[in-house]
Amino acid sequence: MRIGIVGTGHVGGTLARLFSKAGHEVVVANSRGPETLRGLTEELDGRVRAATVEEAARFGEVVVVSVPFGRHTEVPADPMSGKTVIDTGNYYPERDGHYPELDEGRTTSSELLQRHLGGARLVKTFNTMRWDHLREYGRQSSAMQRYGMPVSGDDVDAKRRVSALIEQVGFEPVDAGGLADGRRQQPGSPLYLADLTGGELHERLGAP
Ligand SMILES: NC(=O)c1ccc[n+]([C@@H]2O[C@H](COP(=O)([O-])OP(=O)(O)OC[C@H]3O[C@@H](n4cnc5c(N)ncnc54)[C@H](OP(=O)(O)O)[C@@H]3O)[C@@H](O)[C@H]2O)c1
């Protein structure tokens, strides 16, 4: 599959490594330009290409958005229209600035990203695990005991597609409901940074 990654830091860079090792074609982008990602593309030996944000977003059949939430409105919406988009983002007011609607719990960061991206089919996942655990834990899993990854979103097909990718990199996707239910996987929630197995995650989530 062709995967574009917009935001290639701790999480985006880790996903670039995992997805390319799983055999996908990956194009990465950050805010400073493709030349600043040479270290990563050299490490991955030409299996990952760096491009502009616009190019990475157009390239992907699935696009990962992994930027600090406070910068989400800088991400171009047009090239992601109609596409499955993975949102790894979390809202940290001390980093991102205050959003009253989030501070008051009236909506979620994913719903605000969805509003900005319009026609994209957003799926929130990979946001609850520290990036270095994400790098290691998939390959440490056994068929009997995999770490779980909550998956929330309003588009059933997009969730199915993202769930298949999660399985390919060694985690167990666990349906966490619609995008509004994504609040159950936000910072401060019992799932956040908890590193639960798939079974434990199912138990904690109960019915969406
Ligand atoms: N760190 C974790 O363990 C972790 C775990 C789960 C979820 N998250 C969440 O995932 C998101 C990314 O976290 P991170 O730790 O990977 O952040 P990070 O290491 O700071 O990387 C952020 C990336 O976003 C890029 N970026 C910023 N503004 C951009 C823009 N307008 N267009 C394109 N790229 C842009 C940055 O590019 P430049 O460097 O060129 O500016 C950088 O590549 C955050 O919402 C974070 O809360 C983090």
From TrEMBL:
It comes from the Bacteria. InterPro entries: NAD(P)-bd_dom_sf, P5C_Rdtase_cat_N, STEAP_metalloreductase. Residues 2-91 form the Pyrroline-5-carboxylate reductase catalytic N-terminal domain. Keywords: Oxidoreductase. One of its GO terms (molecular function) is oxidoreductase activity. It holds the Pfam family F420_oxidored. This is Dinucleotide-binding enzyme.
